[in-house]
Amino acid sequence: MARRCWQAFFAVVIGFACILASQSAPAQEPFYKGKTVRLLVNYPAGGATDVVARLVSRYLGKHLAGNPTVAVQNMPGGGGNVGANYLYEVAGGDGLTVGVFSGGYLPQILGGAGVRFDLNKMPMIAGVGETSVVYIRADTGVKGPAEILKPSKPIVIGGFTRESNKDLALRMALDLLGVPYRYVTGYAGEADLRLAVQRGEINYTSEGLTGYTMGSAAMARDGVVVPIYQDGLAAPDGEIVRDPRADLPTFKEFYRAAKKAELTGPLAEAFKISGAVRSLGRFMVAPPKTPASTVEALRKGFRDTFNDPEFKAEAERLLRFQLVSFVGEDAARVNASVFRAASGSVREALRKMIQE
Questions:
Q1: What is the CATH number of domain 36-129+279-344?
Q2: The pTM is what?
């Protein structure tokens, strides 16, 4: 009897001690509390990628545990390679740096100079798909398919680097049409291209739908430029289809109207990669070796941000359209499809082009 009393007494004492310990032990704080998450943009401020990053930065913090500060840092150069190389080689996998990038796919696929990153080894967080709008100065006399084959002035393309998706898509289109052109590369971002068009240095280029809507659409309204087609997006079967947010034909439709024929051959197949890449026109990636739990936390934060009614309302006000987003495994699958599309004949056609 006495033994049972002592056992009961010790049980009460131990239970009471456990309660005290649980009350005195500090609760674990959310991971991001008091921290700053950096969104690293691989192009200059003012371009479409920067616009998307800054829009996301205003809402992402409230959807990450601990509500961190979210800041944007621009690291342009090398046609986007400088920022991508930094994220791949230098930034730590602590969940505090996320790349908000555009470009990168074709430079990696083609082994472009200055590429030290591997998008297959960088955890894909999310992506925003949007087409590009191709436009030409009105003083070339080009208003659509009927005039593109005989412009009143020589066409001068403006772009970033010989390996960039943007530049290759512009050049492939004119090569497929059989239209001669002069090619000027080395512009740092879309804002610089816009100025070059205004100054008359170039007369043919493209911008992502975000940049076009916020910038070059004003030039179109003023009659300085004419939008002629969109690059489109990749459908699940790999075919290029219209982005419904741009009221323009795809290049395939534009080509058919101009040449009265269908697109065929390795270069036409290579052009499909351009649409596949634009399905992740702005993509968010983490540095290699970022823990899976951190990747999932970031994916949830971006997913909740894209679904935030206030975010959607500001996107509509700022961009005049809603973003088409892919998050988590959906984004990873689109990423993988881009590399699958790069068959041997497609790579060879593109390599030949960048060497010309």
A1: 3.40.190.150
A2: 0.75
